[in-house]
Specification:
Helices cover 44% and strands 12% of the residues. The protein is of the alpha+beta class. It has a domain of 130 residues. Strands 1-2-3 form a 3-stranded antiparallel β-sheet. Strand 1 and strand 2 form a beta hairpin. The chain is globular, with a radius of gyration of 20 Å. 22% of the residues are buried. The model has no long low-confidence stretch (mean pLDDT 93).
Length: 190
Amino acid sequence: MRSRLPMYKDLVSDNIILRKRIEGIGVIEPELCQLYGATGPVSRGSGIGYDVRRAVPYSVYPKLDFEVPTSNLKDARGRYDVRMIEMEQSMRIIEQCLEQMPEGDILVKGAPKPSWKVPKGEAYFAVEGGRGKIGVHVISDGGKNVYRTKLRAPGFSNLSLFAEISRGTLLADAVAILGSLDLIIPEIDR
């Protein structure tokens, strides 16, 4: 993958046709990202350097060296640029994880199956997904099953920006803006 990045730059990133389609359209000011709760590459494409893995470190991320890419372009091109840099940073993370992985078996043989009893109360935890912040809010009454669960996926917040940032644009621009928001429709429609 790393050896292909220069080819992607030549064929796609520097392609004048793509650049004309995505530069200067779908501008999202940082304040608008915050108003709508946009996260991930959408907000980082507007210069907001927030990443859950850095803001509230979890798992192995505190032991890894990686950058949180941002762009101050604030347009579809800025969001594209952030995603291209994120591909390189993801490879960097994977390489470090492989270097730090201990030797030995992955699965413990004969381990008992876990039995869950969720303690009474509520908890919230967030992780950084490929499209932004994924949050899970759980409420338990102390029984075997969770009483209520609320999932926060980034797609709905990112889609909510569309009506405002596409106002007055051409239909072709609206398609490019939608693409730059990197939406997964089933995530939004659940």
